[in-house]
């Protein structure tokens, strides 16, 4: 253990009160080539999250399974601010496999409940950005669970809502439906 309770990497079973499925998340999948460490293929230009997944950078892990890792944000907006990432290295949600997306969908509600109980918050935001134009800084899919504390700590949002007309709505519904 390093100073401040930090653990080197996010090894299986360390600091995971929600359970872990054993070693299968660390095994090299069939057909994957290249240097393999901790469940990710090491490549040039790796994101900080890939380095956390590989154990090159430590984290404060709160959850890990075969598809997902969750750890405390080191620059939190409020106590319990947690990042949830897929082990699949994709930049945006639209690029994720159905398996990774489903795994995150199963884990998010459980983590929200656990974090809320741990920090005494009933309100929280889940933030997820896709692309630099949408304020994504780390190009690896990630969700922020940000508790909203009674004293106001948490995510602040300025929302400038527009108006949606019937004709515009009909066109959008048709275009979105055609994209499946």
What does this structure look like?
By secondary structure, the chain is of the alpha+beta class. It has one domain: HIT family, subunit A (2-Layer Sandwich). It is built from three helices and seven strands, in the order ββαβββαββα. The protein has helices at residues 48-54, 98-119, 166-178; strands at 36-37, 40-41, 61-64, 68-72, 82-86, 123-127, 143-148. The chain has a five-stranded antiparallel beta sheet with strand order 3-4-5-7-6, with helices on one face. Strands 1-2 form a two-stranded antiparallel ribbon. Strand 1 (36-37) and strand 2 form a beta hairpin. The chain starts with 35 loop residues before the first strand and ends with a helix. The model is unreliable at 1-42 (pLDDT under 50).
Can you give keywords for this protein?
180 residues, HIT family, subunit A, 7 strands
Outline of this structure?
It is built from 3 helices and 7 strands, in the order E-E-H-E-E-E-H-E-E-H. The protein is of the alpha+beta class.
